[in-house]
Amino acid sequence: MRMGNRVSGMRISMARERGRAIMSVVRYYSFHVTAYFLLLFAMLGCNKLFPVDTGTGSGRGIVRRIDYEHHLITLEHGTVPKLLSPMMYSYPLISDSIMKPIKEGDTVHFTIEELKLGEFRVLTLQKIHPKPRR
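The chain above was modelled as a monomer; its predicted structure follows.
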């Protein structure tokens, strides 16, 4: 009887060691798999992964501020396809003459270009006139 207890005790300890080894492998790979998935989701969530997302685009927005001293215009705009997400941001202008007919609060149609990754410049601004009510 005693011999049987010792053998079964050895089997139990061997099973525990095997279980610990399996769990350490599972922990190791689950950490790495989780890290790879987080990296993958971070890359998919990034809008600027490919150089196709650069160039020029046009959109519509509201002029929130005009800064003649620093040659900037603050636009609150919607999505500019393949270029920008909706936001409010100050952009430099190609020349000050394009913002002369524009006032704060005007709705405008604009063309914007990306010079370098993340660096934008407004090329054109056209005031959108509201339709008269009948």
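The longest strand covers residues 56-67.
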